User: Which sequence fits this backbone?
């Protein structure tokens, strides 16, 4: 059996790699096939950032965790690692700044930091960056010996160094453009009219988006995929479309871009978005992948449920595309089980625009502030008529086998004045509405207590009180 080739740009040249298995990671391809051993494997789960590389060119370039990114997803793209940055004996400004500010000790994590700061350097376009911007850029990188101060100092100084010589873009490769996009071993369709019939032909193929969850099935569970359909090249699914009453977010839109679009109309989403993993995960992972995967501790689903989102499921039947709309809370049937038929794909997430009387409260509790999975996630979306709750939606994660809507608690709040008495009744209902489990992130009792306290936090915010959460101190 002949597996498809990968053609990519590395170190200024097109490289061809033959017979690459569908489940081979980009990190293994770099280290073992291309000998780019500057890229490290730390956690093999996208948590530590030692494997960070930049994928793509120009404005489309972004950091990804290569340990959980499938190698075939890099076909036709440029892959940049830390050792690629220096040229003609001159270090890149990021590298020189880290050297001058003593930003490396054992050096194992350093290549990942270099690439995260390289991404920031390119986005800054020669301008100085703030400490806050630098912290956000390295939110997906962990260091256990140097400490972060010298790394942040280097980030804020890198604009002071002479800019590097611009690399000449390479012409397109005939081998890259001639690859069959519908090769069932690892398909890279570019349009819905390719994707949906392919799904109908191969209903058991693994659907791959950013791989930020599915990649762990490879590195942690040692799963192998015989067939993969990658949706990240499908043009229609990479768009965010605005309509008079809603926005439609394509399933292949990155988490980072999706949150940015939501935050334009709902400023409360901005901080919540920052708590969703580190930048490489947000830039690589897709909203459709996060929603379709249905993890009970996925952070986008409680938010989207509270916003009244629907998903658009599409299939190829009878020689044409068909679709149906499903409320997000009705999409999930059980742990990792959904209403999706074997020939269907989740293609769009439809989110209503906010109304003037909307009040949104978003909370995430985790052991680490950055780059960590929720113990409990709670999002309360209320429409207020004076002091009365005219409408309410409450999305919760981390308390059941799926992301859930707290319907019983909503019933207690709806039509009532949002006062201390109503709050108390709603807290009691919410703490009894679900039966959370105890695991490594939190005990069941702690999760119930969190539900009560987060609902009170929303009430305090609604009353106009400040300093109700740590973020208010900044």
Assistant:
């Amino acid at each position: 059996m002949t597996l498809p080739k990968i053609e990519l740009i590395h170190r200024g040249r097109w490289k061809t790699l033959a017979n690459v298995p569908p489940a081979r990671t980009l990190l293994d391809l770099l280290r073992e096939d291309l000998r780019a051993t500057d890229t490290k494997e730390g956690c093999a789960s996208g948590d530590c950032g030692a494997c960070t590389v930049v994928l793509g060119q120009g404005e489309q370039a972004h950091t990804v965790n290569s340990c959980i990114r499938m190698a075939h997803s890099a076909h036709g793209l440029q892959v940049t690692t830390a050792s690629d940055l220096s040229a003609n004996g001159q270090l890149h400004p990021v590298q020189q700044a880290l050297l001058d500010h003593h930003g490396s000790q054992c050096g194992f994590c350093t290549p990942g930091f270099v690439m995260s700061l390289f991404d920031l350097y390119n986005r800054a376009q020669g301008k100085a960056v703030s400490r806050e911007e630098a912290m956000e850029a390295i939110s997906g990188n962990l260091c256990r010996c140097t400490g972060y101060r010298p790394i942040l100092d280097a980030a804020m100084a890198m604009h002071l160094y002479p800019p590097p010589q611009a690399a000449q873009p390479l012409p397109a490769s005939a081998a890259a453009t001639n690859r069959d996009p519908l090769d069932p071993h690892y398909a890279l369709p570019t349009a819905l009219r390719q994707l949906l019939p392919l799904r109908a032909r191969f209903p058991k193929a693994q659907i791959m988006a950013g791989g930020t969850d599915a990649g762990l099935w490879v590195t942690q569970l040692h799963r192998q995929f015989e067939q993969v359909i990658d949706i990240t090249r499908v043009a229609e699914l990479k768009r965010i479309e605005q309509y008079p009453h809603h926005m439609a977010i394509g399933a292949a839109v990155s988490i980072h871009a999706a949150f940015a679009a939501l935050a334009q109309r709902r400023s409360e989403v901005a901080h919540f978005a920052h708590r969703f993993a580190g930048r490489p995960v947000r830039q690589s992972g897709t909203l459709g992948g996060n929603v379709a995967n249905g993890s009970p501790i996925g952070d986008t689903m409680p938010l989207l449920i509270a916003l009244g989102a629907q998903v658009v499921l599409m299939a190829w039947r009878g020689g044409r595309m068909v679709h149906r709309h499903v409320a997000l809370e009705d999409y999930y049937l059980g742990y990792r089980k959904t209403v999706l038929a074997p020939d269907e794909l989740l293609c769009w997430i439809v989110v209503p625009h906010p109304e003037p009387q909307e009040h949104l409260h978003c909370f995430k509790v985790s052991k680490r502030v950055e780059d960590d999975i929720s113990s409990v996630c709670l999002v309360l979306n209320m429409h207020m008529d004076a002091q009365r709750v005219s409408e309410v939606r409450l999305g919760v994660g981390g308390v059941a086998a799926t992301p859930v809507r707290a319907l019983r608690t909503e019933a207690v709040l709806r039509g009532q004045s949002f006062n201390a008495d109503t709050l108390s009744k709603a807290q009691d209902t919410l703490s009894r509405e679900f039966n959370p489990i105890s695991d490594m992130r939190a005990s069941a009792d702690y999760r119930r207590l969190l539900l009560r306290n987060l609902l009170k936090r929303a009430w305090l915010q609604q009353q106009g009180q400040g300093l109700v959460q740590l973020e208010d101190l900044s």
Notes: The chain has 17 helices and 19 strands. The chain has a mean pLDDT of 93. Residues 33 and 166 are 27 Å apart (CA to CA). The first helix runs from residue 26 to 33.
